[in-house]
Write a structure and sequence with these properties.
With 190 residues, this protein is mainly alpha-helical. The longest helix is centred in the middle third of the chain and has 21 residues.
């Protein structure tokens, strides 16, 4: 039997997310932007809620193509507020548009959103060695710095807990517990 991190349920969607996405380094700008927006949508909710709606989010937000999102009209925003396939929170919906503008500015300034984000971990994943899920923090000094900088650069829904969840999701931090089959030590990666 395969051992996974204790937060994973038996649902195939959750298992696939855990086994094939969570903790795996992402360098693609569009996907990094998507994950940052989805982590922001999660605020106050469970990741499971957002994961189940992820395809609806991709449809509703033009596959998180920032160049399209920055052009959203008031009518488009209103239609998003009425879209039952996503979390219909006005501030969270507006944050995606705000974040798209900040994303494009960052990409222009740093050459890529990936370069901008990965510098917080010196461009290499942090591989933690947690014995149990209770050991895993919800914030770190790095997520605090990232949150502060993202806010300074115009992003919304990027508190330090959201930033740490984001870092875990996109593999900037690998927080698979030591007993999990996805931990790098169990895959001869290290």
């Amino acid at each position: 039997m395969t051992t996974r991190c204790k937060w994973v349920t038996s649902d195939p969607l959750y298992i696939a997310y855990h086994d094939h996405e969570w903790g795996i380094p992402v360098y693609d700008d569009r996907l990094l932007f998507e994950m940052l927006c989805l982590e922001g949508a999660q605020a106050g909710l469970s990741w499971w809620t957002i994961l189940q709606k992820r395809e609806n989010y991709r449809r509703a937000f033009d596959n998180f193509e920032a160049e399209k999102i920055v052009l959203y009209s008031d009518e488009k925003i209103q239609s998003l507020k009425e879209d039952a396939g996503i979390v219909r929170n006005r501030l969270k919906i507006q944050s995606v548009v705000t974040n798209a503008k900040a994303f494009l500015k960052i990409r222009e300034e740093y050459g890529s959103f990936s370069n901008y984000l990965w510098r917080f971990v010196e461009h290499k994943p942090i591989i933690n060695q947690w014995a149990s899920i209770q050991d895993v923090p919800t914030t770190t000094e790095i997520s605090n710095r990232m949150s502060k900088q993202l806010k300074k650069d115009g992003f919304k829904f990027v508190g330090n807990t959201i930033c740490y969840s984001f870092m875990q999701a996109v593999g900037m931090v690998n927080d698979h517990t030591l007993d999990c089959h996805c931990h790098p030590f169990n895959n001869n990666i290290m």
